[in-house]
Amino acid sequence: MVKKNLLFFIYSLSSGGAERVTANMANYWADRGWSVTVVTVVGQDLDFYQLHPAIKRIELGLGKKSSNQLMGLINNLKRISALRKILKKLRPDVALAMMSTASVILGFAAMGLANIATIGAERTHPPRLPLGPLWEKLRCFSYGKLKAVVALTSETAAWLNKNTNAIYVPIIPNAVQWPLALNQPIVDPNKFIADNKNILLAVGRLDQFKGFSTLIDIFANIAPQYPNWQLIILGEGYKRQEFEQQIVSHNLQKQIILPGAVGNISQWYNRADIYILSSDFEGFPNTLVEAMAHGVCPISFDCDTGPRDIIRNNVDGLLIAPGEKEDLKEAVVNLINNDMLRKQYGKRATEVRERFAVELIALKWERLFSELNK
Question: Are 11 and 42 in contact, with CB atoms under 8 Å apart?
Fold first, then answer.
């Protein structure tokens, strides 16, 4: 394929799934000699992921919080104007916005600019995380100004086609990174895990949507029967104190541990026996694919959206009906007690390395770029 001049636009490169995908995609094409620019609303001081040295990094410095709706409008008009200036100056072949609000801003910023393939990318399932009445109207209008809006799953594509003016909605899942690059902070698992312990691992922001409160309660119910098992939840977020108090209330500070965000997550996957995803909803959970690529037996709620596109139920992991806490507990107990089944699922789980290979997913994107640049 002819090398492209590619621009990514995202709010930040802080710790998160969409941010990781952005960094991985940008690095992939930069490593192949493409001209790549990454534009963020906030500054580089919030960066969690490392970029290829050839990538041009631009920060708008417009991440100021809006105190009211009027200030929100003013701040976003500034972002639209700043991004438009960059687009006019760099004239990329492709401008790709990651996440909902960034995609909306790109749609307005690129209006009237010819010869730029403008692409929005939804990273979650919109009806499960609504933007609010004003932003929903803006999304509906702005998506019609983009040449394409990429969805991660068929469910999200159907929603976008029905609820926005998007012209074209291709489906491209996330690629799995294998092996994973090391980033800061490096946190040694051995500082938290004894050699003789088995690990139930979960990863994600400590927020209300990842289901960690439910997960803590489920594990607390079985922990006394399985003292050699620990629950490790990696990540940071505003719910940390609440989860810590919940753990203390169960008197399980030694069996449930919150080490924080880590940059050497592959070492934690390698130490895990079971990976569990307890989210209320997802877009396309990168950590689930990554854990499976490392040969970790997965179990997940069959929530909207993503897990059912990744786990092949009873082949390389288990899918549990959403919200069925008792079923999830029984499934975890079954896996704890069945070492052979865990290993069987873990062995088949590594097939995600081929199913979601970077080269395969990148080819889907490159075909889209070529199609839109005609």
Answer: yes
Q: Are 118 and 106 in contact (CB under 8 A)?
A: yes
Give the tokens for residue 242: 């609440």
Given this model, what pLDDT does residue 2 score?
A: 67
CA distance 80 to 184: 32
Predicted structure pTM score: 0.91
Fold of 189-355: Rossmann fold (3.40.50)
Classify each residue of 308-335 as buried b or exposed e, where b means 16 or more C-beta atoms within 10 Å of its C-beta.
ebbbbeeebbbbbebeebeebbebbeeb
193-207 tens-digit pLDDT: 988 999 999 999 999
Q: Determine contact, residues 236/187, Cβ cutoff 8 Å.
A: no
Q: Which residue has the tokens 């972002």?
A: 79
Q: Are strands 5-10 and 35-40 parallel, antiparallel or unpaired?
A: parallel
How many CA atoms lie less than 13 Å away from 202 in the CB half-sphere?
Answer: 27
pLDDT tens-place string over residues 340-351: 999 999 999 999
Cβ atoms of residues 308 and 330 within 8 Å? no
* Distance from C-alpha of 217 to C-alpha of 265, rounded to nearest angstrom: 24
- Residue range(s) in the chain whose domain bears CATH number 3.40.50.2000: 5-174+357-372, 189-355
Instruction: Determine the Cα–Cα distance for residues 120 and 92; give it in Å rounded to an integer.
Output: 15
CA distance 231 to 252: 10
Q: Does domain 5-174+357-372 correspond to CATH entry 3.40.50.2000?
A: yes
Start-to-end C-alpha separation, the chain: 13
